[in-house]
Amino acid sequence: MKIYGIIGYKNAGKTTLVERLVTEITARGFSVSTVKHAHHAFDLDQPGKDTFRHRQAGARQVMLATGTRWVLMTELRGAQEPALADLLARMAPVDLVLVEGYKRDGHPKIEVHRAVTGHPLIAPDDPTVRAVATDGPLTLDRPLLDLNDIAAVADFVLRETGLIRSARFDTVVMVDWSGGNDTGLMPKKDAIWAGVVRDGVAREPVYLRNRQVAETWVGDMLAHEVQAGRRVCLGFDFAFAYPEGFAKALTGDPDPLALWDWFAARVQDGPLGNNRFDLAGQINRLLPGVGPFWFNGLQRDIDHLPRKGNDRTFHWEPLRRRTELAAKGSFEAWQLAGAGAVGSQVIMGLPVLARLRRRFAGQMAVWPFEQDQRPVTLVEIWPSLIAKAVAALALPGEIRDAAQVRVLASAIAGLSEPALSRMFDQPADSEGWIFGVGHEKELAESAMSHANR
């Protein structure tokens, strides 16, 4: 069952919204149940009725059954109030349960807010509030829904829960990352570039001279898009995870997103230098033998970080992720420098993603680890999946990195909704997955049809 909450202060209109949502969503063919939390003593029974007398006599549960409905009343008699999860477990399966109240529980919610009540907003201090349904203008970092447009509110809930999937995005942003130092004022290759397609229109690729500039640019762009209620597909061209078991070995937690936070707490980064090689050596020291990271790119030697792959005595097994085996020609994440190396990009990129994820908590889903729909979907990309299309569509004199993100952003933005749904239909995998792997032909065809327009 999908669970979605409706919260707000007294007289905001929570019950009215729940009532209207039930009518709207059931009319679309979905089955819906509701849970309402009351902060005061209540009684559905009436003094003098048979069931009331049963309860007064000491019955712990009383069931009243008729030909049209039945109800089970449970007397707590001083016992602790059951948790929402326990109550939901007692309900018959349906498509959606709308929960009114329980604002402190962790399920996603819409806040109902009407200015006339004079109450403050809950949303700024609660990342579980995904949107605010209101009858007036507000400035907020969440989508704003018209309280009187019940169809739009229902659409939002159904998309959020995955009961309907609108795979199309308003904005597509693809980022070609770099693990190196500041690349200077003038645009150049082997730097950070971003390709942007907004409302089907490709913008000029954006040159970002270092990771600090890039993180600020991406964060500001996302804040603007989310505030405007726009859905964003944001891609980065480095691995979102390591091969099976590495996250748990390093952090004690098998969740690959825990590894993001681990790196964020240890990576030291600046425009002109960082500690990625030293950190890789420290990681190697925690593991048996010499490895798995290799290729010290600095002049000075670093303990436990060999300069050549053949100098390793320890190789992580498996060496490559499942998606890398499927993406022919992709590189393993252990090589930190040299031709084709992507290891430095991973180490220097995951901390940025961790901070973006914290900043947009509750509004960003990291695919394929998180499958629910949110305003921002973060995906791992590899532009070389459509290398031939990029080469064919590159403009005269265009820097290859810029062409890659421009063409890939146009390809993803141009995909039909069924095509997008097929590409997103990938089971959650602790090793992550490169978006588009297995659908290279379809992605390339979209690029040829939509890029350079």
Description:
Helix content is 32%, strand content 17%. It is an alpha/beta fold. Among the domains are: 2-39 and 75-161, P-loop containing nucleotide triphosphate hydrolases (Rossmann fold, 3-Layer(aba) Sandwich); 171-239 and 347-450, YqgF/RNase H-like domain (Nucleotidyltransferase, domain 5, 2-Layer Sandwich). α11 (387-393) crosses α12. The radius of gyration is 26 Å and the shape is elongated.
CATH domain topology of the domain at 171-239 and 347-450? Nucleotidyltransferase, domain 5
Cα(first) to Cα(last) distance is 43 Å
Question: What would the principal axes of the Cα set say about the shape?
Answer: elongated
Low-confidence stretches: none
Characterize the biggest β-sheet.
Answer: 7 strands, mixed
Roughly how much helix do the residues carry, as a percent range?
25-40%
Tell me the name of the CATH homologous superfamily of the domain at 171-239 and 347-450.
YqgF/RNase H-like domain
CATH class of the domain at 171-239 and 347-450, anyone?
Alpha Beta
Secondary structure layout:
Layout: E1 2-7, H1 14-27, E2 32-36, H2 50-56, E3 61-65, E4 70-74, H3 84-89, E5 96-100, E6 109-113, E7 129-134, E8 144-146, H4 150-161, E9 171-176, E10 192-198, E11 201-202, E12 206-208, H5 211-227, E13 232-236, H6 246-251, H7 256-266, E14 269-270, E15 273-274, H8 276-286, H9 322-326, H10 343-359, E16 364-366, E17 376-380, H11 387-393, H12 400-414, H13 417-424, H14 440-450
Parallel strand pairs: 1-5, 1-6, 2-5, 6-7, 7-8, 9-13, 13-17, 16-17
Antiparallel strand pairs: 3-4, 9-10, 10-11, 10-12, 14-15
